[in-house]
Amino acid sequence: MTTDRQETQSGVTTLSTPSDREIVSERVFDAPRARVFAAYTDPHLIPQWWGPRHMPAIVDQMDVRPGGTWRFVSRDCDGQEQGFRGSRISENARR
Known about the structure:
This protein is mainly beta. It has two domains: 1-30, no CATH class; 43-95. 14% of the residues lie in helices and 40% in strands. It has helices at residues 33-41, 46-49; strands spanning 2-8, 11-17, 24-27, 57-62, 69-75, 81-87. The chain has a three-stranded antiparallel sheet, with no helix packed on it.
C-alpha cells in the first residue's frame, strides 16, 4: 500500500492505494457531517464542486447505497469528455 499526503490552503487530503484497483481518499472538513455527506451523495450538489470550474460536471449515474455505482463526466470547452466512475463500498460516515 502507498500513501500520499497532499496539503492545500483549504486542508489536507490523504490518498492511499490499498490494492492495484483501489484508491482511498480521506479528508477532514470544517463543516457539519451532514453537509459534507450531502455534498458527496446529492447529484445536484456534485457539479458545484467536482473538477475544475472550466469543465462542467455531469452526473451520469449515481447510486449512493452501499454497493451502488457512480459515474460523472467532465466536459472541456472543446467538447472533450473525461469520465470518472467508482463504487460505494460502505458507509462509514457518522451523521
